């Protein structure tokens, strides 16, 4: 695939590096040409402006601060799959500063296929992802492309429903980050389902 990144920060570099290794053509886009060129060189990608990267990709990764995500997404052409990995956190108490970022992006660019993914782990995880790591994906279309990119990292795509459920992923990230900052270990919260619920899904009689 051809992949553009809107943003040249840590998340963009980590994921771009992995996708280049998997054989994809990646353009790192940023407001600063020098910064984009530095990141692209480390990732083995090419560099461009935000507009160039948006037009370059069959798939575009939105990896900018959440408070500018909606405006930056406006550069993405119709029909493109846009991966939103942002988290709109209020760092004072680790709640959501915006309740549904992915849906807000989709409303702003309704002709773009918005998919929420890669928001539950920091860049350090994506630089060397654990084999088989489950990566939840929420979207109404474009999900198959994103699932392929998840598998290219050696991870397992977890189809988590349509874009309306993306707000639950965003809330999960806020919850997990708040627990981690407080010294907790979120891995202890999710025992194997068979042990927790037997053969009956939670919420079922």
UniProtKB/TrEMBL annotation:
PANTHER family cross-referenced by the UniProt entry: DUDULIN-RELATED (PTHR14239), REDUCTASE (PTHR14239:SF10)
Oxidoreductase among keywords: yes
Molecular function per GO: oxidoreductase activity
Ranges that cross the membrane: none
Protein name: NADP oxidoreductase
SUPFAM superfamilies assigned to the protein according to its UniProt record, in alphabetical order: NAD(P)-binding Rossmann-fold domains
Annotated keywords: Oxidoreductase
The keyword Lipid metabolism belongs to this UniProt entry's keyword annotation: no
Domain Pyrroline-5-carboxylate reductase catalytic N-terminal: 2-87
Pfam families, sorted: F420_oxidored
